[in-house]
Amino acid sequence: MKAIGTTGKSIHDFIEFELKKPELKAHDILVKVDGVSVNPVDTKIRNGLKNDLVEPKVLGWDGIGTVVEIGEAVTLFQVGDYVFWAGDVTRSGSNSEFQAVDERIVALAPKNLTAAEAVAMPLTSLTAYELLFEKLEITDNMNGKSILIINGAGGVGSVATQMAKNAGLTVIATASNQRAIDWVTHFGADFTVNHHQDLVEQVRGLGFEFVDYILILNAVLQHIAASCELIAPQGRIANIVEPGEAINLDKLAHKSASFSFEWMFTKSAFMTTDLQSQHEILTKISQWLDCGALKTTLTENLGAVSTDNIRKAHEMIEQGRTIGKIVLCQ
Amino acid sequence: MKAIGTTGKSIHDFIEFELKKPELKAHDILVKVDGVSVNPVDTKIRNGLKNDLVEPKVLGWDGIGTVVEIGEAVTLFQVGDYVFWAGDVTRSGSNSEFQAVDERIVALAPKNLTAAEAVAMPLTSLTAYELLFEKLEITDNMNGKSILIINGAGGVGSVATQMAKNAGLTVIATASNQRAIDWVTHFGADFTVNHHQDLVEQVRGLGFEFVDYILILNAVLQHIAASCELIAPQGRIANIVEPGEAINLDKLAHKSASFSFEWMFTKSAFMTTDLQSQHEILTKISQWLDCGALKTTLTENLGAVSTDNIRKAHEMIEQGRTIGKIVLCQ
């Protein structure tokens, strides 16, 4: 089968090559891939590669397509199903003609969205859902509670803003320019503040001494002090960024507050006993997308899954000013 | 009324003095104090005082005694009830003839224990309960899950070990000498390891690649690296020590693990909406003590609440080798 991989960390290392069609493990389904999206995890993994790889590394951790074969233990899907998934970072990605994926992390794709609109969603939606419902442990009825979403206009922030609003939370999203402010407001943010300015002063200026929940979705070292200051007694902070150095959490001590990490690949990387929860979460997300409770965050469809388009998407993400999601879907 | 306070941070600054009987707020009860216990919070607060205080500071954050008067909004207690409590660190402590305490953080004392056995328990039990059930969110049926309790023989550790065992957890408690090993084993620890030696190596040597939960009850800077290494994917660490400097939590990132602080005075200091949960928790603890599900951790009753005995208890705690609890109860 055809695949697009990279032989090294340079943005010029992408090549199209012939890859053996994967053999299925018991719980795998084989999917003919129609489209993919590109996430910061793609550029991060590319930048961590060695150069001159003999076996090119196939990236891509969002896919959509048709089930063409199923493993012997598969019960959740059958041949012909149209599915979407984020996948497993320890396996080959979705930038290929076919991909083998564990059924327990896949769901039926939404019916009322185009493939491009749908494939923008799995990785960011799984992350946002696990952040809010598993780490912060919000429920469906959070009226009167508040959340600060740092980097509200990014891929995860755009979904988290919608889910938080649907749960009844008052959402303060950070956005640093007019386009981002319009974007997060469109998705339901009640207030916006600028993460390049003093967050404590701005949030307090809106009348919030504390916020009940905080999501840190980028630049954790820059935002940790303000987050510890602003979090309410018994409040919860969740973060998707590895700090890379020590962080001072002293201000959480007398508030009995918590700091959680979220990485949506933990379940598949460690094959945790709740692996199938990602099938269930993604099914719920598919239903929310179908009924309009969740809107796609697609901003740009670059077209076919080609070396040129993948390179272009990586460039856009590395410039760091993308809003919403970039997909490749013809 | 008579009270014992300290005019400064020296262990020689305790004096007995005449203090105005407190006026009751709407939710306060006035209790005639029969006994108190001494906790590390007493020495910590004493060491943070200015010297030559005009109004001596009354310490003591565990008390037991009889309700002699109730505030106008009180519904949980009546005059004559025999109660125990840990109290509120923002108010005057229990080292006095009478103490005003908010009814919402008080419970009926256990009936089957002596006052000395009972007064050893409120602060450490509330801390252990909130750590396990509110921060780690364990349930009543944790069979197959494991917890590492760092400083298992201390006041909080001795209670947490019992509660964790009752919930079905496999308990690995740290203890650094034979007396401490015997003590934690008596309270149900399945395994002991020595916190002065390599914790990762010892826990792995017992056959645990990871543990599901970790309590850090002292020396967080010394134990944080091992804790981040040993915690399971999606595991939870809870800690009662303010680190005082930045800590490196990077190893939690790919495991989607969490780090929570617990301070049992948060609810009363911030008057949180769930303040009354401490009445409910302490009531449950009282019942557990009465039915034997929880054993007192009392090790030493120094007798009357006197300046000499309080000084002696502070000295013992500052030597840092106490096991279980010291009380003053005639």
TrEMBL record, chains A, B:
Enoyl reductase (ER) domain sequence ranges: 10-328
Keywords: Cytoplasm, Metal-binding, NADP, Oxidoreductase, RNA-binding, Zinc
A single cellular component GO annotation: cytoplasm
Subcellular location: Cytoplasm
Highest taxon of source: Bacteria
InterPro entries per record: ADH-like_N, ADH_Zn_typ-1, ER, GroES-like_sf, NAD(P)-bd_dom_sf, Quin_OxRdtase/zeta-crystal_CS, Zinc-ADH_QOR/CCCR
CDD domains, per the entry: AL_MDR (cd08252)
GO molecular function, one term: oxidoreductase activity
Cross-referenced SUPFAM superfamilies: GroES-like, NAD(P)-binding Rossmann-fold domains
Coiled coil start-end: none
Family annotation (Pfam families): ADH_N, ADH_zinc_N_2
Main location class: cytoplasm
Assembly and oligomerization: Homotetramer.
Family per similarity comment: Belongs to the zinc-containing alcohol dehydrogenase family. Quinone oxidoreductase subfamily.
Protein name: Zinc-type alcohol dehydrogenase-like protein
Organism: Lactococcus allomyrinae
